[in-house]
């Protein structure tokens, strides 16, 4: 397994285990390392990096790391470790920035008119509620990895459960993007997934790949 892919897996698993151990001592690591809304008191810029290594649960962590293992190792072999790590971190940070922008729009259009929020269990001050707007997970970087695989290997056939027939990587990526776009605008009750962060990772990934293609067409431009 390539070095960066292996280390990303190790770091994320260790952080997940560390979160569990910290919880047993009454410490919520997500409160410190998760990405807070930038107008919240507990926000700091370093969280744009640290939030990528935090996860909300085992399933969240497992599927993200499964995708890193499945697709990330291929990208690292094509691009090399430095470019792959740069891509992963920049797209993860880009996803966080998009998430912050979406939260700001929600704040300006809805929340700013109120001094408190009814969470369904209690009425809390707006300052406290803003600190609760926290994002965790590597999903933005993972969606960027999926996009890169689809752009570098667009005609690669993939078997996706529960589809009965293989699908080309480019259609797989487009389908995922459309699902996230729909889910983001649907904003269903109880949906706490950062859909626009996922899309943000893909957007930053697309910009990076197009820049690299323009700068050096011989480096990872297109593969069948």
From TrEMBL:
Entry's Gene Ontology cellular component terms: membrane
Biological classification of the source: Bacteria, Pseudomonadati, Bacteroidota, Bacteroidia, Bacteroidales
Protein name per Swiss-Prot or TrEMBL: Rhomboid family intramembrane serine protease
Family annotation (Gene3D superfamilies): Rhomboid-like (1.20.1540.10)
Cellular location(s): Membrane
Chain ranges of the Peptidase S54 rhomboid domain: 46-212
Major site of localization recorded for this protein: membrane
Alphabetic keyword roster: Hydrolase, Membrane, Protease, Transmembrane, Transmembrane helix
GO biological process, one term: proteolysis
Transmembrane segment boundaries: 48-72, 84-105, 129-150, 195-212
Gene Ontology MF annotations: serine-type endopeptidase activity
InterPro entries: Peptidase_S54_rhomboid_dom, Rhomboid-like_sf, Rhomboid_protease_S54
Recorded family membership: Belongs to the peptidase S54 family.
Database matches in Pfam families: Rhomboid
Membrane topology value: Multi-pass membrane protein
């Amino acid at each position: 397994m390539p070095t960066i892919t292996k280390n990303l897996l190790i770091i994320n698993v260790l952080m997940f285990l560390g979160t569990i151990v910290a919880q047993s001592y009454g410490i919520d690591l997500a409160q410190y390392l998760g990405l807070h809304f930038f107008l919240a008191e507990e926000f700091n810029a370093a969280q744009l990096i640290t939030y990528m290594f935090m996860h909300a649960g085992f399933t969240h962590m497992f599927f993200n790391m499964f995708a890193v293992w499945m697709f990330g190792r291929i990208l690292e072999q094509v691009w090399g470790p430095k470019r792959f790590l740069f891509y992963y971190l920049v797209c993860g940070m880009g996803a966080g920035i998009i998430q912050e922008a979406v939260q700001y729009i929600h704040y300006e259009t809805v929340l700013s008119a109120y001094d408190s929020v009814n969470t369904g269990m209690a009425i809390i001050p707006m300052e406290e509620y803003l600190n609760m707007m926290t994002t965790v997970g590597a999903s933005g970087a993972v969606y960027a990895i999926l996009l890169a695989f689809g752009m570098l290997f667009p005609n690669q056939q993939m078997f996706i459960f529960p589809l009965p027939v293989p699908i080309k990587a480019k259609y797989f990526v487009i389908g995922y993007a459309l699902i996230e776009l729909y889910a983001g605008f649907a904003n269903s009750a109880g949906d706490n997934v950062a859909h626009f962060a996922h899309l943000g990772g893909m957007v930053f990934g697309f910009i990076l790949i197009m820049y690299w293609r323009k700068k050096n067409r011989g480096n990872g431009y297109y593969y069948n």
